Amino acid sequence: MIVLGLTGSIGMGKSTTAKMFADEGAAVYDADAAVHRLYAGRAVAPVETAFPGVTRDGRIDRGLLAEYVLGNPQAMSRLEAIVHPLVHEEELAFLKRAREARRRVAVLDIPLLLEKWVPGRVDAVCVVSASPEIQRKRVLDRSGMSEEKFNSILAKQLPDADKRRRAHFLIDTGRGTTVAQSAVRALMRTLSLMA
């Protein structure tokens, strides 16, 4: 089985591209979705202990948690020390299930894959990208997004040019879904031959 790391900066179309990989038969692990599940389950008690008052209705309120961690590197490190091991456990369980199901390609959709690089985690890296203008428009069109929040998120991510240089494969989403889908289909054929 080939394990492909899928990443890209905010607003580049990574979630849409991950769905395209799933539609082409890849097993896809969504790290953000894993965090959402954990914030409604196993992570609630340890996160609430570290950041009192962030729990609402038995789950972590991401807005309240953001008040603690945005702009506070020590708080962010504390949160990551709690959540990252739990996310990693879920990732390993996903890969085990994909191997047992004899999947040829498993995609790990991880936003900060390159920022939090772990050697040997993936066989290859695919970066999803678009022009800065398209990225900015996509992000600022989101509900609740501001220029300040966008810039804060970007500051935590490697520049797109750096990600592109580190990629084995690149999917350009700035030219439309048909072009991106065609690129995903071609990449899946290549990866299937390597598996």
UniProtKB/TrEMBL annotation:
- What keywords appear on the UniProt entry? ATP-binding, Coenzyme A biosynthesis, Cytoplasm, Kinase, Nucleotide-binding, Transferase
Q: Which domain of life is it from?
A: Bacteria
Where it sits in the cell: the answer is: Cytoplasm
Q: Which Pfam families match?
A: CoaE
E.C. number, please? 2.7.1.24
Which residues take part in binding ATP?
A: G11, M12, G13, K14, S15, T16
- PROSITE patterns this protein is in? DPCK
- What is one process in the GO biological process aspect for this record? coenzyme A biosynthetic process
Q: Which reaction does it catalyse?
A: 3'-dephospho-CoA + ATP = ADP + CoA + H(+)
Broad EC category: transferase
Assign the protein's first listed, main location to one coarse class: cytoplasm
Q: Which InterPro entries match?
A: Depp_CoAkinase, P-loop_NTPase
Gene Ontology MF annotations: ATP binding; dephospho-CoA kinase activity
Instruction: Name the GO cellular-component terms.
Output: cytoplasm
* Annotated pathway: Cofactor biosynthesis; coenzyme A biosynthesis; CoA from (R)-pantothenate: step 5/5
What family is it from? Answer: Belongs to the CoaE family.
Cited function: Catalyzes the phosphorylation of the 3'-hydroxyl group of dephosphocoenzyme A to form coenzyme A.
Q: What is this protein called?
A: Dephospho-CoA kinase
Organism, by scientific name, is Pseudovibrio exalbescens
Q: Which gene encodes it?
A: coaE
